[in-house]
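I'd like us to work through together how a protein chain folds, taking it slowly. To get us started, please write out a protein record for me. Go ahead whenever you are ready, and we will take it from there:
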Amino acid sequence: MQQPRPFGILSKPIGPRCNIDCKYCYYLEKEKLFPDEKKFRMAGDVLESYVRQVIEASLEAGMAEVPFAWQGGEPTMLGVDYFRRIVALQKKFAPGGVKISNALQTNGILLDDDWGRFLHDNGFLVGISIDGPKRIHDRYRRDRAGRPTFDAVMRGLEILQRHQVEHNALTVVHRANGGKGKEVYNFLKGLGIVFMQFIPIAERGRGDGLAGAPQTDMDPGNSVTPWSVSPRAYGKFLCDVFDSWFRRDIGTVYVQHFDVQLGLWLGRGSSLCVFAETCGNGLAIEHDGSLYSCDHYVYPQYRLGRITETPLREMLWTDRQQEFGRHKADALTAQCKACSYRFACNGGCPKHRFATARDGEPGHNYFCESYMMFFKHAGERMHRMARQVSLAQSTFLPGPPGI
């Protein structure tokens, strides 16, 4: 077993079950991993074991707080009483003085005042999925009957804001909003949202329209799905959002991509696995207690075991998981290795490495063009901000290598 180190786990207590049917969702297809499953729900004994073991492993790793992140599918389908049980278990197993944090990702549709009071009183951070104004949001985010969801999501957001629940917006960048960065950013800001995450979608399609397994080379018969954002459109999206943010909102609006990049330009590494040199510290657990190497690698070959059979600590810090994380750096293309912006990108997420480099080498990141557009457009201002932060903290900041 390797030396214990900090980790995070995305918990799927309801597995891939959801009350809506987003066209681009990569997780709904995971139901096929459980062909005999009738009720997707993390059972009481599995939940209790999971909460206890996460607390124990976090303390062993010397983490300042014990983080829990609840996703799906749609976790609010379990009902607020299920989460009251979670909080009770956390209090049961956490020693005095240990800080517990809870994050919940939701489409917001099932939120009501009962949820609002619970989330506020227990200090949950809630991510709510909003893709932009109504005509953009409803393009792909529809319910199982094909009906739009925007109005219901706005009601959920109103619940969060009225109950003063800490929240952020998670916006998927896709074919319908890829060239509309300024519009989407201003819309979210107009809703009173000051913390934003923008997640690009690029899934490879097969004949059945499903995404293929990660880290597979691109070929003419395995193109991206129609809803995937193009590299150029995503690059323009990032540049347009950055311009709007830089002009008026530094220090008042927080965009995850820019916060992470500032840390990298300061030479402090990435707080987000996408741009970290290696990965492997962000895992996922399914409703049956099965632990996987990553949320985007919930495939049989990346299953590490089940927490009711193998202690969590014996799956977190293994040679196998470390090798999974190290492969991110080891598998860089020659184009990546020679790039002057490698310090700010590190080849991006391996799940997107299905394109080819300029010399034809496979395994290059699909969003390389996007990142290059952003670095060239915003790099000088990023470096200027980093230098100001560095001077304020009385530390010396050299220029980024090769730029």
Remarks:
- The chain is about 35% helix and 15% strand.
